[in-house]
Design brief:
By secondary structure, the protein is of the alpha/beta class. It has twelve helices and 19 strands. Helices cover 37% and strands 19% of the residues.
């Protein structure tokens, strides 16, 4: 939103005329719609911390023995969860929600714009290219995404570009031959077996950001949505019959947060006919079982299918080529003044390792590669 207007984006096409007639631009219950359209609970939680401190709800310690910021954060977070679950009409919660709407989301400005639009004559057009009215909004959106991309590194860059059809950001696919079998490597950190119509993904670590926040470490939200968006792109491109996670689908027990599981359930409903298999990894065992509604089949490593032995931990298997994850391999690209680590694929004589798919995962650079091992990163191939 800016002084010229605002941009409405939808993941699915819909009938604009019918929706407008049903009150798409109505200002009624605007506050509820705004809060429902994003992760307002995290914004409200941040506001509640300061409110709890000022109101005296959280004890800050005696003089000279002040509690740390992490302790105050944990205490206010506990009160927030109790009030949200058992006292939804609490005045302090209402104050936090009101401050989010007023100070962070500028709800008053959105309401004024909607009221002005409803009082005006509505004209629907379908310009073939960006015109002078909407160019500023597009520029603002592009700038915001660029800033987010710089802050998050490579997180979601391929997926955002693919969704817009930009030629420079279009996800690349590289057909390779691994131990005499065809495999397609995607720059979105996944592999596809065209013979089996099987999409392979390692180390998604869904809910890792929720785990960090639950343990008192403030990190941004959005990694779950980013991961699911890239999965959507991969499924649309390759049309797999089966999706196999090579371990560590969830990060830890706290990854069973409501917002994470709700997002996974919505995504699963969109792909109801897709068979999903999880080769159980070490993080999956700590995280606990997924809800049955997600319909994920658990198997133990090595799980043999076609020419592959699918594993979480890299290993060898008699009579099959092992594909695994766990290591989060990266490749370091350096210039004289700067360097960056990018996820990569590594293939040895008997075992290959896929990069970590999760956008909120680290990487381990391994300089101990064996001669003849092949490494693939976006846009290039390295043989060692």
């Amino acid at each position: 939103m800016n002084d010229y207007g605002f941009e409405l984006l939808s993941a699915q096409p819909f009938d604009w005329v019918a929706e407008l007639q049903r009150g798409l631009l109505s200002a009624e219950e605007l506050d509820r719609d705004i809060l429902a359209s994003l992760n307002s609970s995290e914004l409200s939680r941040r506001r509640f911390r300061e409110i709890a401190r000022v109101s005296g709800l959280v004890f800050q310690g005696h003089p000279g023995q002040q509690k740390s910021a992490r302790q105050l954060q944990a205490s206010s977070g506990l009160f927030y969860e109790i009030f949200r679950n058992h006292d939804s009409g609490n005045l302090l919660l209402d104050q936090a929600d009101a401050e989010v709407l007023l100070q962070e989301l500028d709800a008053k400005r959105i309401r004024t714009a909607l009221q002005r639009m409803n009082a005006s004559r509505l004209v629907l057009t379908q310009p073939k290219k960006t015109d002078s009215v909407c160019v500023s909004a597009h520029r603002r959106t592009a700038a915001r995404e660029s800033q987010h991309g710089e802050a998050r590194g490579s997180r979601g860059a391929d997926a955002r570009g693919a969704g817009k059809g930009g030629p420079r950001m279009k996800p690349a696919a590289l057909p390779v031959d691994i131990a005499g079998h065809p495999l397609v490597l995607s720059s979105l950190r996944a592999a596809f077996d065209p013979a089996l119509r099987c999409l392979l993904v390692a180390d998604a670590h869904f809910g890792k950001d929720a785990v960090f926040r639950a343990r008192g470490v403030p990190v941004p939200v959005g990694s779950t949505g980013d991961n699911l968006m890239r999965l959507d792109i991969l499924i649309a491109k390759f049309e797999p019959a089966m999706l196999v996670f090579l371990g560590d689908l969830l990060h830890a027990r706290e990854a069973h947060a409501e917002e994470t599981l709700d997002a996974l359930q919505v995504w699963r409903t969109r792909h109801a006919s897709l068979r999903i298999v999880l080769v159980e990894g070490n993080h999956d065992r700590h995280a606990g079982a997924l809800p049955e509604a997600l319909r994920v089949n658990y198997v133990q490593e090595p799980w043999r299918i076609g020419p592959w032995a699918l594993c979480h931990h890299p290993q060898t298997a008699d009579g099959a080529y092992a594909l695994a994850g766990h290591l989060h391999p990266v490749y370091r690209i350096a210039t004289r003044n700067d360097s960056v680590r990018v996820p990569c694929f590594r293939f040895g004589g008997q075992c290959g390792v896929l990069p970590a798919f999760g956008s909120f995962t680290g990487g381990a650079r391994d300089d101990g590669r064996m001669n003849g091992e092949k490494g693939f990163r976006r846009g290039s191939r390295q043989d060692h």
